Amino acid sequence: MPAVLSSYDKIITVMPKNWKIHQSQPKNILSTLLINRGLVSKQDQTEFLNPTNPAKINLEDLKISRVQVVKAIARIKQALKNQELIYIYGDYDTDGVSSTAILWEALNSLGAKVLPYIPVRNDPIRGLSPAGIESFKDKPKLIITVDNGISAFKGCDFAKKMGIDVIITDHHLPRESDRPKALAIIHTTQLAGAGVAWFFGREITKNVNSSLDLAALGTIADMVPLIGANRSLAKFGLSQLRQTERFGLKL
Ligand SMILES: [Mn+2]
User: Fold this and answer.
1) 196-208 in b/e burial notation, b at 16+ Cβ within 10 A?
2) pLDDT tens, 203-250?
3) Distance from residue 10's CA to the centre of ligand 1 (Å)
4) What is the per-residue pLDDT across 127-173, written as a single tens digit (0 to 9) for each?
5) Over 60: is that where the pLDDT of 3 sits?
6) What single DSSP character describes residue 56?
């Protein structure tokens, strides 16, 4: 016995044992486990065990506005045609870096002039900001935020003043009921930033297989609940991750 009880020991010593045993048929352990996770209906249980291929999930199911996606794609097509410089404005955590890579690859595959921007860790400014925009090496015509931007009022206003259009893609809860003045806002709280970027990338390129590995990485690292579309991205993305040719992700 240690001389001093650790806090864990104290908890287990003090805590009364109060086991709640769920009723279960001996043969139906799977059903019991699913119900304990809140998956009661047959449909929820089937979806949990056999997630839908993300290629088949509609934007409407994710509460992503198709009107905003169409508007954003029209602006991207214009940028492609005129070879305008585009910056993907990301974040430095795993979700932010994965999101940035997903959209950079999508646009690069179409021949866009596109650069990634990841803020420096410990920089007090995180998310689209005037200081971030000013630190760009070259002035872009279009900024696409990933995993940030839904509350970037100052960043959007500054970009506008500089003659730069902004497309926001984000999954964070908005801090205010107002939205920043951006050209288009692609937003849902149902996914991680990488999930939002993946579905937007799918709409831009019509390629349903690329970067699923990165979408899974961001989704899992951001610790969003692994149900619904997140589960789909995790399942299909993990199997792609096993065969990835990405140097940094190869085991
Ligand atoms: Mn995130």
Assistant:
1) bbbbbbbbbeeee
2) 999 999 899 999 999 999 999 999 999 999 999 999 999 999 999 998
3) 36
4) 999 999 999 999 999 999 999 999 999 999 999 999 999 999 999 99
5) no
6) G
Q: How far is the CA of 218 from the centre of ligand 1 (A)?
A: 7
Residue type, 149: G
CA of 222 to the centre of ligand 1 (A): 6
Helices 212-221, 228-242: crossing angle, 10 deg rounding: 120
Q: pTM score > 0.90 for this model?
A: no
Q: How much is the pLDDT for 24?
A: 63
Residues 191, 169: contact at Cβ < 8 Å? no
Is 126:152 a contact under the CB 8 Å cutoff?
no
Tokens representing 192 are 């991680």
Distance 181 CA to ligand 1 centre (A): 21
What is the predicted pLDDT for the residue at 120?
A: 86
C-alpha 171 – ligand 1 centre gap (Å)? 7
Nearest Cα neighbor of 211 from 225, 195, 223 is 195
The type of residue at 47 is: E
Q: Which residues pair with 148 in a beta bridge?
A: 169
